[in-house]
Amino acid sequence: MTRIVAIPVKPFDVAKERLSSILSPSQREKLSVELARRTALAAIAAGASPLILSADDAVTKWAAAQGYDVLLDEGSSLNEAAHSATLFANNEPWILCHADLPLLRGDDVAHALDLMAVGTWVVAPSSDGGTSLIGGVGDFDFAFGPGSFHRHLARLACRPVRVLTSVGTLLDLDTAGDFRAAAAHPRGRWLNDATPIPSGP
Fold first, then answer.
1. Burial letters for 134-163: b for 16+ Cβ neighbours within 10 Å, e otherwise?
2. Considering its fold, how many domains does the chain have in total?
3. Is 31 within the bounds of a domain?
4. Which end of the chain is less packed: N or C, by CB atoms within 10 Å?
5. What is the CATH number of the domain that holds 89?
6. Cα–chain center distance at 17
């Protein structure tokens, strides 16, 4: 059985602009690469194959150099790119997992895959009400955007579903406060080494 974890990745040189108050452009680019790398490694640790979703040349070249499958989204919306990933899965289990989860580990992904192995769909909320991870088998009508978790949960009402809440999937990295909270957690200590920032509010 082939299990894929589709990972949408924004262009490294423009990602994480909301962290510009604490990180320089080069630090944000370095952070974006490392987040994508760690997310892909979490998928591999869980026994799945990473599938990088991107329309950016630098991202696709990076992914190809790592030996990861790449699906060009050609500038489409995240919902369309996610739908393409389900088609790529060809009726095998798939997960859509965002690449801005600094506390994510392989066991978070493995837990989701274990539930899916018995026919359960999985969905994980982020702390801001979004959807950090969603998975199942077959087609799905994605509804990403602000507050997407409740929309996704409603669209899974007629399917067996488990809501996943773990530190690895709850905290996505959007703001300076998110960064400091993640860096203070044992799972997030790598952030201090990768992109050290000055102390402060």
1. bbbbeebebbbeeebbebbbebbeeeebee
2. 1
3. yes
4. C
5. 3.90.550.10
6. 17
Q: Is residue 184 part of a domain?
A: yes
Contacts of 143 (CB under 8 A, 6+ apart): 79, 151, 152, 155
Residue 201 belongs to some domain of the structure: no
- Tens-place pLDDT, residues 134-173: 999 999 999 999 999 999 999 999 999 999 999 999 999 9
Taking the whole predicted model, whether its pTM rises above 0.70 is answered as yes
Write out the residue range of the structural domain in which residue 59 sits: 4-192
Residues 6+ apart with CB under 8 A from 131: 123, 124, 125, 144, 148, 149, 152
Query: How buried is residue 72: exposed, middle or buried, by Cβ count under 10 Å (0-12/13-18/19+)?
Result: middle
* Percent of the chain with pLDDT strictly greater than 90: 87
**CA–CA gap between residue 13 and residue 26 (Å, rounded):** 8
CA distance 46 to 53: 19
Mean pLDDT along residues 169-194:
93
Residue 86 lies in a domain: yes
- Distance separating alpha carbons of residues 121 and 156, to the nearest angstrom: 8
